Amino acid sequence: MKKRVISAVLAATMVCSLFAGCGGSGSKGGETADADTFRIGGIGPVTGAAAIYGSAVRNAEQIAVDEINAAGGINGYQVSLKFEDDEHDAEKSVNAYNSLKDWGMQILAGTVTTTPCIAVADKTSADGMFEITPSASSTDVIKNDNVFQVCFTDPNQGSASAKYISDKGLGSKIGIIYDSSDVYSSGIYAKFKEEAASLGLEIVSESAFTADSNTDFSVQLQDAKDAGADLMFLPFYYQQAAIVLKQAKDMGFAPAFFGVDGMDGILTLENFDTSLAEGVMLLTPFAADAADEKTQAFVKKYNEEYGETPNQFAADAYDAIYIIKAAAEAANVTPDMSVEEIGTALKGAMPSVSYDGLTGSGMKWEATGEVNKEPKGVVIENGVYVSID
User: Fold this and answer.
1) What is the pTM of this model?
2) What separation in angstroms does the CA of 300 have from each of 119, 304, 307?
3) Which of 37, 108, 148, 215 has minimal CB crowding within 10 Å?
4) What is the mean pLDDT of residues 207-236?
5) Is residue 66 classed as helix, strand or coil in its secondary structure?
6) pLDDT tens figures, 332-359
7) Where are the domains of the chain?
């Protein structure tokens, strides 16, 4: 008797799988979307060298989704979030995207890092899916009209950094080290150099490294030291920045150091002596010590949930979910709509959205996907970020 019941259930399941409408509506390309729930996917590295970024994004997105659901959802519908690890690898990111499509994803809040995001953006474009990335900053990410950014573009970071250094009088002789093998770093460098020239900043040393030569910066630092650099601009990620700071101290080179958002994370790098980062400055859209109520509530909640202070990647991700909500409410979308219908409605609504978030007040978006907001300056003092604006 039990065998007959099991066989009947299996047969019914097989029959159901033959029909597109079985198990939900709004389906497309293997999706099984629930007509009563918005399904938002996230992709980023939660293992590997860049895990600090992906974990922060995943954690903050979950906080935002939980808050939104507790407050009644989006247009009266609940939200489900599923986050996939891509290990900061383009091929694995595409695999993660396909897995999320099978789950029924309707909107993508990702990916976290640039190279994987470029690969996935072509997939979301082909599917007509709305995508908003918290932190992938290359302009190549937004070449398709369905993708929007919460973070600054690389050129914006470069020009904003040069202007900030000039306005604050932080250095008169600038040395630069950048990663010529990375689109993020080289994009920021190129715009910084262009803006620095227009502002009259003197660049006395420019040195590159690649992914194959990112553990010894003694030659680049010696070149800058010999040129008399009093400020080093470091437009790359915190792992390499930590090595630069250690090697600079070992050789007795003590200029000011200035980074961009990729520097965020250096204070939580395992086995890093945080005293080496004392006085390091960077531009970021988020400062955890800001006194406004929204920032302090988020920092408190994040610390309670995950036992640490959120970085700017977390703040961008938290904003990303609420920006999706704002666009969805402006467009009056519902989860029974197809992926393409939702995507078309959301990208049409984005240029009219104005959002006050953790990473900017009155944030607005161009139809190109680029965000308009002001950066904040922070300095590391006694092992924490302190606002300097």
Assistant:
1) 0.79
2) 35, 6, 10
3) 215
4) 97
5) helix
6) 999 999 999 999 999 999 999 999 999 9
7) 11-152+294-374, 155-284
